[in-house]
Amino acid sequence: MKNQDLSENLAKIIYLGIGSNLGVRKRNIEKAKFQLKENNIKFITVSKYYETPSWPNPNYPKFLNIILKIVCHHDPLSLLNICKKIEINLGRKKSKKNSPRLCDIDIIDYHGIKLNVKSKLYLPHKRMHKRNFVLIPLFEIEKKWKHPSKKLDIKTLISMLPEGDITSIKQI
Q: For 34, 98, 107, 109, which has the most beta carbons within 10 A of its beta carbon?
């Protein structure tokens, strides 16, 4: 076994969500992907783009979202710091919760671990099981994924979404 093989085995499988609803949304997401790669984050799979109305205020611009399956050697808090730095690099400003933003990067699932760092990081993402823009692109790239805490498979979680959430998401 080569050293490279050993180090790759130590890397963790992680799912990230990237969204944007301001500016040129697709370009914002592509810039975020580029900066993730610059931070030694390797992409395994990238979902297609999905467009959804803003939540909780559908009067805000629509969101464009993707899910990435990645591998990296960063611990959860280091990865969170990288994601926050990228958001700031792309122009994200402090604003009211759920307000429009140029870039939002969330850690959805970090190798199935459960973590609660009060008001900083919850793993798996604490609302991901209720979000069509997470579940549907995640299903596209990982049909056998299971929620680490709820122990429910992704098909079950999608079936639990309200019908309006299923009909309001559009693949771009």
A: 109
- The torsion region of residue 106 among left (phi > 0), alpha (psi -120 to 50) and beta comes to beta
**How many folded domains does the chain comprise?**
1
**Domain of 65: which CATH number?**
3.30.70.560
Distances (CA, A) of 21 to 1, 37, 149: 46, 22, 29
Q: Tell me if residue 95 falls in helix, strand or coil.
A: coil
Contacting residues for 104 by C-beta, under 8 A, at least 6 apart: 17, 18, 19, 20, 87, 92
* Pairing state between β 170-171 and 121-123: unpaired
| pLDDT higher than 70, residue 1 | no
Domain that holds residue 93: 3-171
Q: What is the largest CA-CA distance in the chain?
A: 55
Q: How confident is the model at residue 9 (pLDDT cuts 50, 70, 90)?
A: low
C-alpha dist (Å) from residue 101 to 56, 92, 94: 14, 6, 10
